[in-house]
Amino acid sequence: MQINVAEANIVDRCESCHMNTREPLKITAASMTPKGEKKARRYADAFASHTQPELLKIHDPETFGCSPCHQGNGRATTSVEKAHGNYEHWLWPLFPRENAQAGCQNCHAADMVLVSGDVQWQTINNGKDLFRQRGCMGCHRYQGYDEEPEELNSIGQQIKQIETQKNQNLKQTAYLMKQADAAESNEDANRLNGQAVDLRVANSKLDGHLQQLDYQSHSLMQDQKKVGPNLKDVRLKLNKNWIPVWLKKPRTSVPRPRCRTSASPIARSRPFQRISGNRDSPML
Ligand code: HEC
Ligand code: HEC
Ligand code: HEC
Ligand code: HEC
């Protein structure tokens, strides 16, 4: 038994042992245990149906294989240890049972939560939540996670560069015009004027590019859907020594919340986004 997914270079032979993984009938380790034996044999476990058939409906093993979720060495069949990648020549051993959901991160790193209808994958969702709440994301940034702020930042830098270029062009144009006025021959004057016109054309192209970047940054800001910080653990952020002071004079003792009213440069800057940054605000 093997699954071949050529374009992803996956060859998974897990079902050589796990033969009933996808059988339509529900098969348990108990039902694979011979009559009279009290305890299931080791292989009875391997013959059981998949515990999450609904998940396999969303991720058909014909196209996803098994190892992208579970890890393990899909090609090996000579022993359980080798197949599960628990030996010195394999870098990606099977995730242990209690961490089976770690594999979801291989493809769903950019998703805030994994839910489908009423089903929640709570282990991975809690992990993702901790990663944000504990500030790990401040240092451990990775591609695909919290992408909009990164892109906004890069667009901001491009806009700055283009504006600098435009200013230089303007200065150079003024200089060329002056030179043209003072030129000794008509030919020189025409040449200098021509150069000035070229620079004006270049600037109007830059204006077009600026407008595009402006559209892009607007749509990115909409995608961020930020209305405010996650208030779930707001209690933890209040220092109890402050409370009596704050009760006396609420206005002065606690900094006013930073509300996001417009796309000011501060609102676009990375530190601000890190403070207010979460895409799954409970207020949405
Ligand atoms: C040589 C037979 C064999 C192959 C091939 C095999 N397994 Fe297993 N697997 C077993 C057996 C037997 C068990 C029962 C538990 C044990 O003995 O470790 C098991 C248990 C499991 C479990 C339960 C969790 C655990 O830690 O016990 C998972 C998940 C699993 N296998 C996934 C896979 C995946 C994914 C592949 C392919 C990459 C695979 N297996 C290939 C024999 C195999
Ligand atoms: C989309 C990801 C995904 C794919 C694809 C997938 N699995 Fe799983 N599998 C899981 C998750 C998550 C669990 C743990 C379910 C649970 O905790 O009940 C699981 C559970 C299992 C178990 C039982 C583990 C236990 O605790 O007893 C086995 C065995 C297994 N998978 C084998 C396979 C095989 C073989 C394939 C390929 C035909 C496969 N899985 C494909 C995600 C996947
Ligand atoms: C090999 C890549 C891969 C892995 C690993 C993977 N997924 Fe997916 N998942 C996908 C793709 C592709 C889609 C379809 C995306 C789409 O339709 O937009 C998807 C869709 C989903 C959906 C959305 C289904 C819906 O109702 O719209 C959920 C929920 C989901 N995956 C949960 C999980 C969980 C839980 C795990 C881990 C146990 C997991 N995925 C592992 C690639 C993966
Ligand atoms: C102040 C910055 C910072 C914060 C915050 C931070 N880390 Fe790290 N982390 C590092 C550095 C630096 C390394 C070492 C990287 C290296 O050795 O290449 C590291 C390494 C790791 C590693 C080992 C990675 C590997 O590939 O071996 C893990 C796991 C890890 N951190 C998890 C976390 C978790 C979970 C959190 C949140 C609770 C967190 N880190 C918060 C800076 C940080």
Short synopsis of the structure:
By secondary structure, the chain is mainly alpha-helical.
In total, how many domains does the architecture comprise? Answer: 3
User: Structural class of the helices, strands and pairings?
Assistant: mainly alpha
The number of E-state strands comes to 4
- Average pLDDT for all residues: 80
User: Termini distance?
Assistant: 47 Å
Q: What would the principal axes of the Cα set say about the shape?
A: elongated
Ligand identities: heme C
Strand order of the largest sheet: 1-2
Backbone CA Rg: 30 Å
> What does the main sheet amount to?
2 strands, antiparallel
Uncertain runs = 225-234, 253-284
Order of helices and strands: EEHHHHHHEEHHHHHHHHH
Count of individual helical segments: 15
The percent range for helix content is: 40-55%
**Binned strand content:** under 5%
Commentary on this structure:
- This protein is mainly alpha-helical and 284 residues long.
- The protein has three domains: 3-94, no CATH class; 108-145, no CATH class; 147-276.
- Helix content is 50%, strand content 4%.
- A two-stranded antiparallel sheet has the order 1-2. The chain has a two-stranded antiparallel ribbon with strand order 3-4.
- Helix 9 (147-181) runs antiparallel to helix 10.
- 9% of the residues are buried.
- Residues 225-234 and 253-284 have low confidence and may be disordered.
- Bound molecules: heme C (4 copies).
- Residues 55, 58-59, 64, 68-69, 101, 103-104, 106-108, 114-116, 121 line the site of one heme C (HEC).
